[in-house]
Specification:
29% strand; 206 residues; alpha+beta; 23% helix
Amino acid sequence: MTSSPYLVNIATIVGKAGTMRTLELDFDAPERIGEGLGYIEKGTPIELDVRLEVLHDGILATASLESRMSGECSRCLTPLDEPLRVDFAELFAYARDEALEYEVHDDTVDLEPPVRDAVVLALPFQPVCRPDCLGLDPETGEKLVEPLEEQAPAVDPRWAALAGFGASTEAAEEPATGSEEVAGPRETDVREGTRNHDYKGESGQR
């Protein structure tokens, strides 16, 4: 049976109140941590810096974990691979009659439960590839690069021909520009005709 990389032997410090021990644990995650869109994938390297302090009622473990978060963007489903850092502190009580969440067993502490709890709490519920991610286009399913309201509205191909017919009808109804108005009768011609008629009348009388 393979020993868990989270198990730490504390036989040399158990019962010695005031004693402190530090250690660095480097290993690959034996199992996936997290069930949501963000998680630490199985096999991902984990660096765990731990400080153990012996108290009268147990061992206080203060730890800092560094690893990488895998997953996908909750808006556009882009794959994610981001650094992850988690800090936590938990007390491992000496075994008692009542069951406790974290206890010292056989001079060892198992860091897996507090690591898992701390990581799950630190992982984002809805991770995003970037804060201003616009998500996916509801029509094409492609990743949006600009807001929908800034895009030209799509024309339904079933109405495209009708739209063209309407545009041509409007163009036909508009008056032609630059056409000349119909010229009316010239007043000068009328006046000249009258003047000639009067002149002939006067000549006849003479």
